[in-house]
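Appendix B.2, paired examples.
Example (i):
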Amino acid sequence: MTEAGSGLPAAGLPAARLPVARREVTLALGAGGARGLAHIVALEALDELGVRPAAISGCSMGAIIGAAYAAGMPARALRSFVLASFRQRPRVIAKLLEARVGKLSQLINRAGLGNPVLVDGERLLDLFWPEAVPDRFEDLRIPFSAVATDFHMRSEVLLSSGPLTPAVGASMAIPGLVRPVTIAGQVLIDGGAVNPLPYEHVTRRGAFVIAVDVCGASFVSDSRVPEPIEAMFGASQILMSAVVQRMIEQHRPDMIVRPDVGAFAGLDFFRAQDILTAAEASKDMIKRGLDAALA
């Protein structure tokens, strides 16, 4: 579902008549685990219109997708890369095991305090990211920033320069699943803890701000009791959704895009094709909204 900001017409001129250069467009891609694959559909809409964002800010999965796109990788290529990556389950599991930090023996040797499923986010990005993604923010083609959380100070940290992989690794460091990252003496975890949809970082005078929110409620009743990791991840999604709602009440971006992916769990990466298909309806809505707003 796509929600337009206040005063934005519901429909406009055909997309082919979009005056691309008349107004800057900036983009915020939110946290949401596997649901964040829906960001690719929003990026495809921009590519098909010939709209190049002037700046991108991302959180967690939004940072992963946003950085790859900011590197110059077309959205269609991102789609193909993601589908190919998750097509072979054994290969994906092998990569996850390779990136794993914890060991089964920790459950015994550390009196149950170890975590045998914890992974190194930076290593995971090295294994899964396209080769086109550079090592540093400065080498990206579109200005990009990633949001993380300072664990000890309980505050937001905006990362926009220097090494890219540690920054995005920090933004996606979901507690209990991905190891925290230390940058400049700060212990950083998932940015979704403080700012799941960082559109204020791309809000600038005269720009049209698009925020893609993928952490909303599923609206599907289910009596199934979730597994422990699923419950932990789901609780994080619930908290992020509440944070986003408060943010929007205080300051609404020009366009809020909410792809219809609420029925998917945060770890449903092997359902990548289904997620992209479910999000497809948001593409035309983005085009109509941009056409009307930029005409």
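Example (ii):
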Amino acid sequence: MPQRIGSIVTIALGISVAVLDGTIANVALPSIADDLQISAGASIWIVNSYQLVVTMTLLSLSSLGDIVGYRRIYQTGLLVFSCMSLLCALSGSLLTLTIARVLQGIGASALMSVNTALIRLIFPKAKLGRGMALNAIVVAISAAAGPTIAGVILSFASWQWLFAINIPIGITSLYLSFRYLPNNDSKNTHCFDGMSAILNALTFGLFFIAITGFSHNQFIGYVLSELLLALIIGYFFVRRQLKNPFPLLPIDLLRIPIFSLSICTSICSFCAQTLAMVSIPFYFQRTLGLSETETGLLLTPWPIATILFAPLSGRLVEKIHAGILGAIGMLIFSAGLYSLALLSGTPTYLNISLCMMICGAGFGLFQSPNNQTIMSSAPRNRSGGASGMLGTARLIGQTSGATIVALLFNSYAVEGTHVSLMSAGALALIACFISGLRWKA
């Protein structure tokens, strides 16, 4: 038990800063742009470069974890992330900061790629749901708290401290990792497929650049060219994976019905979550006329409810089938989203908070059982690949959700938030249906 607690603390510290840094810089972009004397458009790359690199390298690093060990990949990620956080804090130009963010993204990708694989080593199979619940809590809090933490830091310090604060956390986690993290009980002996890693990076990179450009009204010729190139490279990438006994993209795992259904459920759920979390602040501030502080406070009930219900679902999954429990969670999540979309013109703080808590409770009930199913349905020596697919599903869902929000806001200038929330509710219902199918898978 002491080693298990130490391992969980180690993973929680590392994964929290990795997830936080995906959103924490958003609040500081105006300050960074002014300080570095760059345009607002150019400053977006400080955020996009980080997210893009994580997406492009996640599967490659999870595959490498199966070969060299999850512990080693996690420790390397901590070291790279901490060093690059220092470089970010010391950067004096857009070029230096962007390069540091790219390298920091590689470190974050290493952390995200194997964190659930490590949890599978830490917890016995009978209590794996509890481990996944703890991981879900950390990810949920980190993702939701990013803007709030950034606002607090920027109220008394410069933007450089957003990155500098990672250094002591990273060093502490690195020290604890040598003391507590377990080694793989079995490792694969095949060689790392470098060509597949390149094809993977190009496929995901071009695809997400294309859909992001489309959502921001980029010239359609560029978007179509990027999509076409992504499809061509993706075709050769998939063909290579089908011939590989240890594929980078674990297509063989997708042949396991319950695994593929869980991945689809995860994509739909995170797409719905992002649709809501991106659109709701616009509703609070532009429609209801609330301040940034009020917006932050009204967003808080969501992660609080997730914190309360994720541990509960981690215990319930030991008695209730994960497919049924996940379906119930998504049904509750959908009810919360629709209740937000149908709020009256002048809702009270209490009404908004209750709706947000329903959303957080539903998502908390769903996430832990779903993550456990993804990890436990894969062979133990393929935990790295399963962990990578879990993280990739989350990133695909989040990126797709952000893109859909942009498209809906461009199409519905006045009703953008309402349509986004209704769409999120529909996606949650789809996730509910898919999750229910796992009962007999």
